[in-house]
Amino acid sequence: MRIDETLLNEAKAYAARNGRSLNSVMEDALRQLLNRSTEVAERPRIELPVSGSASGPRLTWAEIKEILEQEDIERVMRTCHADA
Q1: Alpha-carbon span 28 to 20, nearest angstrom
Q2: Higher pLDDT, 34 or 44
Q3: Of the candidates 8, 39, 56, 49, the residue with the CA atom closest to the CA atom of residue 16
Q4: What HEC string does the chain produce?
Q5: Rounded to whole angstroms, how far apart are CA atoms 8 and 29?
Q6: CA separation (Å) from 58 to 62, 64, 65?
Q7: pLDDT band (50, 70, 90) for residue 77
């Protein structure tokens, strides 16, 4: 196995700082990489809404701005009523 010399030196320094053997550091790193790959493969796919999709409305930037402004107004009104 060939390992980049700079990476190997960093791993040796890490092992020394943490009172561990280089072998245990390398095993942990490989184990974490393999576990992360498994975790990613097991996650369910999430469908995100896309602006302009065939199933939803297509909004212009002006319409989006208007909706956001209306939501801000409604939030301020709810806050004022809650404080009263």
Answers
A1: 11
A2: 34
A3: 8
A4: CCCCHHHHHHHHHHHHHCCCCHHHHHHHHHHHHHHHHHHHHHCCCCCCCCCCCCCCCCCCHHHHHHHHHHHHHHHHHHHHHHHC
A5: 12
A6: 12, 10, 14
A7: confident
